Amino acid sequence: MYRKLDYFYASIKDESGAGFRFLDRLATKQVDLTALTAVPFGPDRAQITIFPTDAASLVAAAKEENIALDGPHTAILVEGDDQVGAFAKVMAKLAAVNINVFSLQGMTDGRGGFRYIVFVRPSDIESALQSLGAS
């Protein structure tokens, strides 16, 4: 399965407990997440990439909680059965139509499935989805 996945960036202080406090504020507002990543951003900040199941609920919660968001941006969520070469097949389809993947994240679920988040340029999203056979 292939589909668009909205994501947003937020910045938090890079200190013990900051991630928990940030996520707790979202959970209190019933924001459900498909995925989440965090990376260092400068000497004392962390950049959180938030992939909400419902972008509108995240935006509303962020407004209520005074959380600055950058987005929405769009990536592609790829899900399927885990097998040797599964992601190579996805990458081959994108390469065949000259689409550059500039970032990706993924993992297996331990139950025979996988999920990958594929980042392509905004101008390539629709072509990428079409080349992957998304409906």
Protein architecture, described:
By secondary structure, the protein is of the alpha+beta class. It contains four helices and six strands; from the N terminus they run βαββαβαββα. It has a six-stranded antiparallel sheet with strand order 2-3-1-4-6-5. The longest helix is centred in the first third of the chain and has 11 residues, at 18-28. The model has no long low-confidence stretch (mean pLDDT 93).
Topology:
Elements lengths: L1 E12 L4 H11 L4 E8 L4 E8 L2 H11 L4 E12 L4 H11 L4 E8 L4 E8 L4 H8 L3
Antiparallel strand pairs: 1-3, 1-4, 2-3, 4-6, 5-6
Overall CATH class of the largest domain: Alpha Beta
Order of helices and strands: EHEEHEHEEH
The helix/strand class is: alpha+beta
Number of domains: 2
Percent of residues in helices: 25-40%
Instruction: Give the integer mean of the pLDDT values.
Output: 93
Tally of strands: 6
Strand order of the largest sheet: 2-3-1-4-6-5
What CATH architecture label of the largest domain applies?
2-Layer Sandwich
Main sheet overview: 6 strands, antiparallel
Question: Unreliable segments (pLDDT under 50, ≥5 consecutive)?
Answer: none
Shape field: elongated
Which percent band covers the strand fraction?
Answer: 35-45%
Structural Rg: 16 Å
CATH topology value of the largest domain: VC0802-like
* CATH-assigned homologous superfamily of the largest domain: VC0802-like
- End-to-end separation in angstroms reads 9 Å
- Total DSSP helices: 4
